User: What shape does this take?
Amino acid sequence: MGGRVRANLNQTMRIKGDTDRQMVPADVVDDATLPLSLYVHIPWCVRKCPYCDFNSHAQHAGVDQQAYAAALLLDLDKELASQAGRPVGSVFFGGGTPSLLRADVLDFVLGGVARRLRLVDDVEVTLEANPGTAEAARFAAYRTAGVNRLSIGVQSLDDAALAAIGRIHSAAEAVAAYRLARAAGFENINLDLMFGLPQQTIEGALDELRAVIALEPEHLSWYQLTLEPNTLFYHQRPVLPDDEQLADMLDTGQEMLAAAGYHQYEISAYARDGRECRHNLNYWQFGDYLGIGAGAHGKLTSPGPVVRRRSKLRQPDAYMRAAPEGAVSNERELRSNELPVEFMLNALRLRDGVPAALFAQRTGLSLETVAAPLAAARRLGLLADDEARLQPTERGFALLNDLLALFEPE
Assistant: This one.
């Protein structure tokens, strides 16, 4: 973010080995009271975008959506062996393109989830949708099935830019999808919009942002196009705006968003008051989450405390075959000297940070464990001088990678 100022970190102190860990009493970390969410991965798209590094696959005519849905519930049964009874505050269908799911298949999955999990009364249920797969009848059926938040991948409102980044919809279809969602009864909608697109001018980026703001969604994910490894764009690089242009887009765009009543609560997330994405907030506050579906990731805390990360087989066919016996591809326990940076990597993405006490509550480590890097961060002006909060300063928010580097294990 910004990227115009750089700190000299040569003299900073880093986290040392496990021998220096100071644990808090075991009852401070209680997995039964940690927030829990559910992520459901839908791995198919109409076509793979050249900038996308997510686990997604082009959907073919032989895809058996019902078989995949059954595998999801078998996967969930395995996950619940140690997590049964914990309340779940949010469910998120991500992808891929979840809006490719038939409404009856989504209803089957959500019904199975509701029978297996203790969902809170006001559970947030989000589904990602692409304008090219939007249908009025399908949106209405999703709403009936229990989805109460849509995240629509607009990405651009310029047809030439959409073609350049491989999207299958037009600007008009993106606006139409938003209107369809409103007509279907959705009162909580996020719109994804990128800037820094191939050949994009500052004026063009701001015009697109202005047009999306005019639609008045409750939430906006506004973020810069980046060239990720293992993508077509990484190997066949398009011409992108330079750093000065990107900085001007960002600075002016953030002013526009604030003036329109959208507060930036995370690096690329802007919301009306009370409309922050609860599912993503749980990630950033180092809560627990179950992950089901091909390539899905989860993070769970058990007494000790022990924090484990788990991922599932990435290929849909292999995932479905393995689901009855368990589709886990990798699982590992985080070492205690990894926990500080894992926690900070999430918590310091939040502009307001988190209460300092949350560090011990979510990691089981005493705050004294990170006393040296905290002092270094405050000395460098990257972290607010507030013992009660872990909050990046404006400088720290702009230089987040430098701030996080202080918490890396040696």
About this structure: The two ends are 26 Å apart (CA to CA). Residues 187 and 259 are 22 Å apart (CA to CA). Residues 1-21, 23-28 have pLDDT under 50 and may be disordered. The chain has two domains: 1-23+336-410, 30-283.
